[in-house]
Write a structure and sequence with these properties.
The structure is a homodimer.
Chain A (H helix, E strand, L loop, with lengths): L3 E5 L4 H5 L3 E3 L4 E6 L6 H4 L2 E6 L4 E8 L4 E6 L5 E9 L8 E7 L9 E4 L3 E4 L4 E2 L3 E3 L8 H12 L5 E5 L18 E4 L3 E7 L1 H16 L3 E7 L13 H15 L5 E6 L10 H14 L6 E2 L17 E4 L7 H4 L1 H6 L3 E5 L3 E2 L10 H13 L3 E2 L3 E2 L7 H4 L7 H13 L7 E2 L8 E4 L3 E5 L7 E3 L1 E3 L8 E8 L4 E4 L4 E5 L4 E4 L4 E3 L6 E9 L15
Parallel strand pairs in A: 1-3, 2-8, 12-13, 13-16, 16-17, 17-18, 19-20, 20-22, 21-23
Antiparallel strand pairs in A: 3-6, 4-5, 4-7, 5-6, 7-8, 9-10, 10-11, 14-15, 24-25, 25-26, 26-34, 27-33, 28-32, 29-30, 29-31, 29-34, 31-32
């Protein structure tokens, strides 16, 4: 990602830079020189209001060390924007300027938003299917390892990476300590919590920008319970808030940032649920762009119905073994459900890391036909590290099948996949009347009688069927067309009673696509007599 | 149920009655004569404050027609209570009195409360397992049919009945119209919504009292979407509120009342979610005893995390086919989950009423081992009526197995059944270290290797095992004692590796009871390293 930044020595510098063009959803950065006395992290308040004539956006600035202050802005509309800074120090206040925002850079779609209640789309309307993986401590690994991880990601199917901001107190390969920390001071627990360490955040930003260049969302985890001797989990309330505000000020202009308040939030034993409510509200208020906000649970699920939660980020070790389970959370929160942790593929000593690649692949599909999103994780131990912990190289098998899955999703119609008849055909997701995926899971049927739930259907509509082998990554079209005839009150079958031959092994799905006629129904409304 | 009521002609009557003794959780009723002019339902406000020296309880009165006003009070503490009335009419205000409250009547335990987060107990601490059935319109059937229903219930296992307050516009046996309605006027839709019809409510009260005498909770449904031509689903906001307050004033002194705000609330198309929030709050504020409050969904689940919901009342056609599904709602709301509608046993034309008795029984057990409560329903059509609609006679098979199930529950230890290792052994519920039920569902194993999740266990502890046939209603003790030996990080097995022989058919459970030694663990806390 390139920055469009200007350094203002004073107000006269503004007109000089005004002609520069920034792409929509890029970053425009104001750089100001200011005071170095006292503690600028604490003492100086800086912000700017950006105005394009139809709306104003207030953005907090931050101190980046060495007398340099920055204000980063992500314009979400094209055209001319003007700004004016405000600060409690003379050199930083009343700076004004303007710049032009042009079309987005190639391949950029803006931040991801909730779409159609249970799904996601980029700001430009393009559907976004979260196909994520977790690499908790990759930013704690040596630089060349981080580069290796990025290289792996550039050849992998993932469009979201979930990771910790602050390091854990376990060294890479048990011997290479982390070198960058968010605060001045030294490990362990000799921090000056009133002074941030800009190099730490610059590295974080560099990596987020590189993920963005790869088309990958950065699900950044603000707190975690794993660094007890570092003490980032037991900071006082003011430090917590300053830490959150500093991160949000630095990162929110990156289009691909998601806020994950915590990993296993309920295992931070010194925080209460009220603390998490407060943290959410701080993020919500401080982030002018409304990036996605969630929180990942350990044992106790957070109340995801609260208004500041945009989507559920769930750990559950069994919910996606079966689409009939996965679907249940959707109705509860009426928000997208992302299963960020469903146990991991690997050969860990712990049972949370012992999924076979087949089971990991199965869980992705099971969640998908239930209208939810299951994320990948992998922990094959190799030279004292795992993909889950530090990234590096993918050593599993499921990620290849996930690439195949992603291809299928990208061919699916807009709107996202929803359960079609949720209490009856829980292994089928799609868009009624248009497109269906039916997934047989661990069952190994040799035959499927063509049958679709009534919603959105009428007699005479025509469909084509493909048989998908989710493990061997094949798509086999079934000959001929299936023409609907009403079977009974609840469903339609093929007029000639046709069935589809299946290979009699696990991991098979069928894809059913409308190739003639649209039905009377529409999605989103329960039918009058749904049951 | 007997009433302890006094009729006050004036203040001088009070001392005369003061010696009377009311049982704890019985009803003390003040009866006052007052004005008949105007519209007493609208014009007269009446209440009383009851005071036992340590707390005051304010209770609304109501007009019962013919110049009679009543204030009903359910004392929840023994000893002397005093009261004073307040009203906006002279004859009704400043009436004072006192009475003595003695021990509860035999077999009475007080109102049911939430207990131990996911469970229920009576006010006296006795555990209450909801074993409910639904009889929507039984109060709309002729009187002798209602008596028949009560007689059936007196020989059935149910301790909760769920039913509609207002009639549906479908006549009993398609030919016997309802004769009592909550408002003055005539069907259909010629009501004076400003005047209640006391005979309707007296019948309702009589039946609730009779249910109480049978030890049955009355889950009264205030609104439903089924009476469109009667118009009780489309009353204006003031009428809705008056209706709620009148019912609460009349019924809340009955110890066995539960408030179900609606059946399929989301199918009342003219009400918004905000209306339901408001109704809940009215009930919560008007009911001085805090009877249980829930709302039953059609397609859209209400936000049961809201503070005025005491427990989830769920319709879901597939969630209890598998304990691994049923368990999911528990964590979401951290409240008791009652599956009030899971499809019904019967031979209906609709798929919601086609469960086999085996499947209904299975669902009860599946929900139970998941730490939730599944309620019965039955719809075998007989002479144009079904148990589900009007009561009468139970014609199914599952209810007998539910009696067997209830017996097993009554032998279980206090605290309620919780999942023991929720993401791993989802077919096992119990109290760790003490008592376990493992239910094999539709699987038909011939063998179960004795193995228990680690929580609350230590080596040397001894257990006995019974094999339960949930359909044939047999409990077969397994010879000998199982003595714990640690198997691995996660579980314990028998020291001699013993297994339990099973009959190789569906519907089998094992019960495992501690007969020697208590473990180091305790329930309610997640272990430090739970996964």
């Amino acid at each position: 990602m390139r920055f469009w930044s200007i350094v203002l020595a004073g107000a006269w510098a503004v007109s000089m830079m005004a002609a520069e063009t920034v792409p929509q959803w890029g970053i425009y950065e104001i750089v100001l020189n200011g005071p170095t006395n006292g503690n600028p992290f604490i003492d100086v308040r800086l912000s700017a209001v950006f105005d394009n004539g139809s709306k104003k956006v207030e953005v907090a600035g931050f101190y980046d060390g060495d007398g340099v202050y920055r204000i980063r802005f992500m314009p979400d509309e094209q055209g001319v924007w003007r700004y004016e800074t405000e600060a409690n120090r003379w050199p930083l206040t009343r700076q004004v300027g303007s710049f032009e925002v042009g079309p987005p850079a190639k391949g950029r779609h803006g931040p991801v938003r909730v779409h159609n209640t249970y799904h996601f789309a980029y700001a430009d309307g393009t559907l976004y299917y979260p196909i994520g993986t977790t690499i908790y401590n990759w930013l704690q690994a040596p630089d060349d390892w981080q580069e290796l991880t990025l290289n792996t990601l550039s050849n992998a199917p993932f469009n979201k990476v979930r990771f910790l901001v602050t390091p854990q107190d376990v060294d890479f390969r048990k011997s290479v300590p982390a070198t960058l920390f968010p605060f001045e001071g030294r490990p362990r627990n000799e921090w000056d919590f009133t002074r941030f360490s800009p190099p730490f955040f610059r590295k974080l930003e560099q990596r987020i920008a590189q993920l963005g260049d790869l088309g990958i969302e950065a699900d950044v985890i603000l707190f975690h319970p794993y660094g007890k001797t570092y003490g980032f989990d037991t900071m006082d309330p003011e430090t917590d808030e300053r830490y959150i505000r500093y991160i949000v000020a630095r990162l929110s202009a990156y289009h691909n940032v998601w806020w994950s308040l915590a990993n296993e939030y309920d295992f931070l034993r010194t925080k209460t649920e009220a603390d998490w409510h407060r943290f959410f509200q701080i993020v919500q208020e401080a982030d002018p762009y409304g990036h996605l906000r969630s929180i990942h649970n350990g044992y106790d699920i957070y109340n995801n119905s609260l208004p500041w939660v945009t989507h559920a980020s769930i750990q559950n070790g069994s919910a996606v073994t079966d689409p009939g389970r996965a679907v249940l959370y959707r109705d509860v929160w009426r928000k997208p459900v992302v299963f960020d942790e469903v146990k991991y593929e690997g050969t860990e000593n712990y049972r949370w890391g012992q999924l076979t690649p087949e089971e990991m692949t199965h869980r992705m599909w099971a969640g998908l036909v239930a209208g939810t999103y299951v994320q990948h994780g992998e922990c094959y131990l190799h030279a004292d590290d795992t993909w889950l912990s530090y990234g590096g190289v993918l050593r599993g098998e499921s990620w290849k099948r996930i690439a195949f899955l992603r291809q299928i999703l990208e061919d699916a119609p807009p709107g996202g996949l929803d359960p079609v008849d949720k209490w009856q055909d829980w292994d089928m997701g799609g868009r009624s009347g248009v497109y269906y995926l039916k997934y047989f899971g661990w069952a190994a049927p040799t035959n499927w009688t063509f049958e679709l739930p009534r919603e959105g259907l009428q007699e005479g509509m025509q469909f084509r069927v493909d048989v998908i082998d989710t493990w061997n990554m094949t798509i086999t079209p079934v000959d001929g067309v299936f023409t609907l005839k009403r079977k009974d009150r609840y469903s339609f079958v093929d007029g000639n009673g046709r069935a589809v031959k299946l290979p009699g092994k696990p991991g098979i799905a069928v894809r059913i696509r409308n190739v003639g006629g649209s039905g009377p129904g529409s999605r989103g409304m329960a039918p009058v007599e749904p049951f």
